[in-house]
Design goal:
- The chain is of the alpha+beta class.
- Helices cover 37% and strands 16% of the residues.
Length: 339
C-alpha cells in the first residue's frame, strides 16, 4: 500500500511537469500532488509499526524537511477555499522556443481572509507554507517532497522494470539545470559524480564509433528504449566499461542499415531526432563484453566529425554549467517525452 501511494505521488509530479509544457490544467495536477502527498503522510503516520518513528520526525527528532511536509498539508487543507494556489513566476515564467516551451509557476500567497476561515490547527501550519513553499518554484518543491519520503522510508520508492524511479527522470528542458530526478544532488559536481556512478538511462546503447578528443578516447552512438532512440550518447571508454560492469548493455552493429527516422510521429519531441529500429535491436547488434582499447573507428554511414562536436559540447568548460544540461540529458536518457 505504501509503495502504491508513493507511486501515485511520483506520477503526480511527473504529470504536473508534463502538463507544464502544454495547455494542461495545472490546477488539477497541483490538487493531485497535494492529495497524494497527504495520503502518503497519513498512511505513514498511522502505520502501527512505523508511526512512532515517523511522527518523531515532526516533533522531538525533527527532520530538516518537516516544515515542507507541513506546508504541503496546509496547502492541501486550503485548496478547497482558493481557485488557484500557484501562479506564474515573476522572473522565470516561460522558458523555451524551438526546443519546447515550459511554464514555470510558483506557490502563491494565500489571502488573509481565506486563512481566517480555517480551523486553528490548519492556521498554525501557515508559517511552514510561507517558509517552504510560498514564492518558490513548484517542480523543485515537489521533488524535495519526494526526496523526503525516499530518505525516511527508502523501501517505498516505486521503480520500473529497469530499477528506475517510476515517472523519472523528467524531460530535460534546455537551458534549465534544476533537478529532474529526486536522487540528483543539487551541486553540479556532485550531480556529475552521481550520474557517472549509476547505470545510464534506457535499455541499451548501440556504439557507432570512437573518437579521441584531448587525448581521451570516447565511444558514441544512440541510447535505445525498446526499439526507439531519442538521444545520442558519448562516454569515455573507461566510463562505458564501468557501465558494463554495472550490468548495462552496450552493443555493436550497423545502425545505419537498420533504422528509420520517425521524428515526425512525435509532436512533443523538439530536441533531436527519433530513430526506430526496424526490428529488435538485438536482432542486428551484438552485446559487447567490454569496450576494447583500439584506434578510432566509425561504423558504416556515420560521420565522425559530427560526433566530435557532440563530445566537445559535453566537455566544454568555458561557460560554467553549459555542458551540464546536455550531459545530464544524455546520461539519464532524459529526452524521452511523456507517452
Amino acid at each position: 500500500m505504501l509503495t502504491e501511494a508513493m507511486r501515485d505521488l511520483q506520477m503526480s509530479v511527473a504529470e504536473y511537469y508534463a502538463d507544464s509544457a502544454g495547455a494542461g490544467d495545472l490546477g488539477r495536477r497541483i490538487r493531485g500532488f497535494l492529495t497524494a502527498t497527504q495520503t502518503l503522510n497519513d498512511l505513514l503516520a498511522n502505520q502501527i509499526a512505523q508511526a512512532p518513528a515517523y511522527l518523531s520526525l515532526f516533533a522531538t527528532n525533527r527532520h530538516p524537511a518537516a516544515g515542507l511536509i507541513e506546508g504541503v498539508k496546509f496547502a492541501r487543507n486550503i485548496q478547497q477555499h482558493v481557485l488557484h494556489i500557484v501562479r506564474p513566476s515573476d522572473n522565470m515564467t516561460l522558458i523555451g522556443g524551438t526546443l519546447g516551451f515550459r511554464l514555470y509557476a510558483v506557490w502563491d500567497e494565500v489571502p488573509a481572509n481565506v486563512v481566517a476561515r480555517l480551523r486553528p490547527g490548519t492556521q498554525a501550519l501557515e508559517p511552514h507554507y510561507q517558509a517552504e513553499l510560498q514564492g518558490k518554484e513548484v517542480t523543485g518543491t515537489m521533488i524535495a517532497v519526494l526526496r523526503f519520503f525516499a530518505e525516511v522510508v527508502p523501501q517505498i520508492v516505486h521503480r520500473d522494470v529497469r530499477g528506475e524511479w517510476t515517472g523519472f527522470p523528467l524531460l530535460s528542458q534546455p537551458g534549465v539545470n534544476s533537478a529532474i530526478h529526486p536522487e540528483e544532488p543539487e551541486d553540479q559536481a556532485h550531480a556529475r559524480a552521481w550520474m557517472d556512478g549509476r547505470r545510464p538511462g534506457g535499455d541499451c546503447r548501440v556504439v557507432c564509433g570512437q573518437v579521441t578528443v584531448n587525448d581521451v578516447p570516447y565511444v558514441y552512438g544512440h541510447t535505445f528504449v525498446g526499439r526507439l532512440s531519442f538521444a545520442p550518447f558519448v562516454e569515455t571508454v573507461e566510463q562505458a566499461n564501468f557501465d558494463i560492469s554495472l550490468g548495462y548493455a552496450y552493443l555493436e552493429g550497423n545502425l545505419a542499415a537498420n533504422f528509420d527516422d520517425v521524428t515526425d510521429r512525435f509532436d512533443n519531441v523538439h530536441q533531436g531526432a527519433v530513430l526506430q529500429s526496424r526490428g529488435d535491436v538485438s536482432s542486428w547488434a551484438t552485446q559487447m563484453a567490454s569496450i576494447p582499447g583500439r584506434a578510432d573507428w566509425t561504423a558504416p554511414g556515420v560521420l565522425a566529425e559530427s560526433w566530435e562536436q557532440v563530445v566537445k559540447m559535453e566537455i566544454d568548460t568555458r561557460i560554467p554549467g553549459f555542458s551540464f544540461g546536455p550531459r545530464r540529458a544524455r546520461r539519464l536518457n532524459a529526452l524521452v517525452p511523456p507517452r
